[in-house]
Design a protein that fits this description.
Layout lengths: L4 H17 L4 E4 L4 H6 L11 E5 L5 E5 L14 E5 L5 H8 L5 E4 L5 H10 L4 E4 L1 H9 L3 H22 L10 H14 L4 E9 L20 E10 L2 E2 L2 E6 L5 H20 L6 H14 L11 E3 L6 E5 L12 E4 L2 E4 L3 E4 L2 E6 L2 E4 L8 E2 L3
Parallel strand pairs: 1-5, 3-4, 5-6, 10-18
Antiparallel strand pairs: 1-2, 2-3, 7-8, 8-9, 8-10, 11-12, 13-16, 14-15, 16-17
Length: 369
């Protein structure tokens, strides 16, 4: 992601304001996406510690293994790189940098071994979750972030159109082969990374997170494809279903209910509405359609630098939707041992109303490929 130093400075300033309001002295960030959100650097998930120590004032310190230091883009004035050698215990360095802190917020993805080690070195410290400090800021996407999400969505929209038009061969191929095909297309469309490419045929589509395998796709069955990746630091995520031949009346009826529920769920995402209301909207329509017991997951999840992040469109998430929130709306109907259906778009809350970033056709297509 090409982000200006000025934007990183603004983000750090906002985090520091949140730290003051929440009485947090230090924020510690290791693996996960909070670190690149503030510094542009993504830590490798190694047993060697990388950690940013951000205080309310002063220059943030980025502790990084010396062999990894060349990967860090230097930004003088934004943060100071502190390389550590193999013979040094980096937790001692971090603990020293936290001296005098009574409340520390640490990143959710930090390895437990590091948190336990810091706990021993910093007795009496009150530990909080950094997501409560940084997460609220990351939920509110800037216009530049929305444009990055839009570009990623347009790329996978084009692939979905190829699927719906029959340009991606299905019949006679295994789910794994089609998944690999989708993955290649995701990269060819400008993504740097494939996050997932679910391909589930027939009865396998009744498993929402089915792992594509050796099953050969047959004529006249539902094929559910849920795929996405990371493009210039931001994620895409789309689900479309096709039928390899004739669409049965049973599947067509269920899909009509699903499409109505998904459309209503998108429309429900107005600024000031609770996140859980998006879920209750889709769930009510599916329940009234007679498929309530077959909708087995939440309606959606936040998306940005991570494919799944706050907020969540699920009962119990009472946060009010704010301008810049980006999230999926993806209700599903899953009939065990028969078939499954899901329809997913990425939506951004705007002052003018919910904006669907995905424009690929929502209808259920019959393909002969």
């Amino acid at each position: 992601m090409l982000t200006s130093i000025g934007e990183y400075e603004r983000r750090i300033s906002k985090v520091r304001s949140a730290m003051v309001s929440q009485s947090v002295d230090t924020v510690l960030l290791s693996v996960g996406h909070d670190l690149p959100y503030l510094t542009g650097y993504t830590a490798m998930p190694l047993e060697r510690l990388t950690m940013l120590a951000l205080h309310r004032g002063g220059t943030p310190l980025l502790f990084v293994p010396r062999l990894e230091a060349p990967r860090v883009a230097e930004m003088p004035g934004l943060f100071e790189i502190v390389p550590w050698d193999e013979t040094v215990e980096p937790l001692d360095l971090v603990a020293a940098a936290c001296s005098g802190s009574s409340t520390i917020a640490i990143g959710d993805q930090t390895w437990a071994r590091f948190l336990v080690g810091l706990g021993h070195r910093l007795p009496g410290v009150r530990w909080e979750r950094a997501v409560d400090v940084v997460g609220d800021l990351r939920m509110r996407k800037s216009s530049a972030e929305v444009e990055a999400l839009r570009a990623a969505a347009e790329a996978v929209d084009a692939i979905a159109a190829e699927l719906q038009s029959g340009h991606i061969p299905l019949i006679g191929r295994t789910e794994a082969e089609v998944s690999a095909d989708l993955s290649q297309r995701i990269l060819a469309r400008g993504h740097q990374k494939v996050n997932f490419a679910i391909v589930a045929a027939g009865e396998n589509a009744a498993s929402p997170h089915h792992h594509p395998g050796s099953r050969v796709i047959q004529p006249d069955e539902v094929v559910l494809c849920d795929f996405g990746g990371t493009m210039n630091g931001y994620c895409s995520d789309i689900t479309r279903c096709v039928v390899t031949g004739e669409i049965s009346s049973e599947v067509a009826a269920a899909y009509e209910v699903l499409m109505s529920a998904q459309s209503a769920g998108v429309a429900a995402g107005q600024i000031g509405v609770r996140c859980e209301e998006v879920d209750s909207t889709t769930r009510q329509i599916i329940t009234e359609g007679g498929y309530g017991e077959y909708f087995v997951h939440r309606t959606g999840h936040g998306i940005g630098m991570e494919e799944h992040e706050d907020p969540y469109m699920v009962s119990g998430d009472v946060r009010l939707i704010e301008e810049g929130f980006a999230y999926s709306v993806e209700p599903g109907i899953y009939i065990p041992n028969k078939w499954g259906l899901r329809l997913e778009d990425i939506v951004v809350a705007t002052a003018e109303g919910p904006l669907s970033l995905n424009q690929a056709d929502h209808n259920l297509h019959s393909v002969s490929a």
